[in-house]
Amino acid sequence: MYMKKSFTLIEILVVIVIVGIISAFIIVSMAGVSEKARIAKGQAFSSSLKNALLANLVSEWKFNGPTVAGSPVTIDDIKDSFGTKDCAISGVAPTIRSGSDCISGSCVDFDRENDGYLSCGNLGAMSSFTLNLWAKKNSAGDYNCFIEGATGWNSGFHFWANGNTIVSRVGNDATGIDVTSTYSFGTLWNNIVFVVDRHVTPARQKLYINTALVNSSDISSLVGDISLSAFKIGFSSGNSAPLNEYRGKIDEVRIYSESLPVSRVRENYYAGLNKLLVRGGILSMEYAERAAQLINNLGELD
Q1: pLDDT tier, 28 (very low <50, low <70, confident <90, very high otherwise)
Q2: Which residue in 198, 221, 195, 193 sits closest to 206, CA to CA?
Q3: Of 250 and 12, more confident
Q4: Is the peptide bond preceding residue 261 cis, with omega within 30 degrees of 0?
Q5: Residue pLDDT, tens place only, 93-134
Q6: What domains sit in the chain, N to C, each tagged with a CATH number?
Q7: Disulfide engineering: 228 pairs with which of 149, 164, 174, 217, CB 3.0-4.6 Å?
Q8: What does the alpha-carbon distance between residue 88 and residue 84 come to, in Å, rounded to a whole number?
Q9: Which residues on neighbouring strands pair with residue 131, listed in sequence order?
Q10: Rounded to 10 degrees, what is the CA torsion of 98, 100, 102, 107?
């Protein structure tokens, strides 16, 4: 005689738990893939910048010195790998990280409680320039001052964030002009590009995050070059101590004495995508998606 067997409540609960565990692993795995893809896109963008502006590269700090991860930064870790502007440590030394904690090689981990930052000297005065760096905040809602090249509040440039409100500021000593945007940095690595472009009319400052142009502003009223003196990594005078210091990791900082050339960056980015496609690093569908994103991201804001 055939007897129809039904599942007991315990068996159903066990199945639900197993499905839940499997789903959690899938979600975590997909989140990791998404983060890697976003970093890869930012790395391609940074590489395209370097290819397009190599003749204008002024200084580059990779932080790939000899110090073991988890140890305090030494002067050998913060040398200018391209120019002559080796950094010095102001206050208590931040910490070296490496491997999966960083974008490439090693990086610097700042802790506001230590009151430490990197002082890299005077980079000179520039009519147009491009700053590119990677940053990862320790706390998503924290007040963070990433970087500056200035001797005063209305000079040079400053970049800071108060939670999801981000501000870049450029000035000529007499006047400072801000670009304010809303962007969720979270606690992930973000690629930041800050540009002063005097080749467009009107002249503009622009802020790109993860290849997207998040905002820009008219700076045609600023007469003369921008003085990038007293260049500091992990610090900005956007607020009083201790809020003028950064809390998180910074990697791959580069300064170019020219503005971001959109057409050349697009050309170099496509070349990088083509290489990835040929080597099997990305699929055709992802190639098409990235190309479409680039066209949208590099559009100019009026």
Answers
A1: very low
A2: 195
A3: 250
A4: no
A5: 999 999 989 988 999 999 877 778 999 999 999 999 999 999
A6: 53-260 (2.60.120.200), 261-302 (no CATH)
A7: 149
A8: 12
A9: 194, 255
A10: -10
- Residue with the two structure tokens 């790939």: 64
The first and second tokens of residue 19, run together, are 């499905």
- The first and second tokens of residue 55, run together, are 């003749």
- Closest among 33, 45, 115, 122 to 86, alpha carbons compared: 122
Residue 202's identity, in one-letter code, is: P
Burial of residue 147, with CB atoms counted within 10 A of its CB: 0-12 exposed, 13-18 middle, 19 or more buried: buried
* Residue 162 near residue 282 (C-beta atoms within 8 A): no
Instruction: Identify the three-state secondary structure at position 54.
Output: helix
- The two structure tokens encoding residue 9: 């409540």
Residue type, 241: A
Q: Which of 38-60 are b and which e, b meaning 16 or more Cβ less than 10 Å from the residue's Cβ?
A: bbebbbbbbebbbebbeebbbbb
Q: Could you tell me if 159 and 147 are in contact, meaning their C-beta atoms sit under 8 angstroms apart?
A: yes
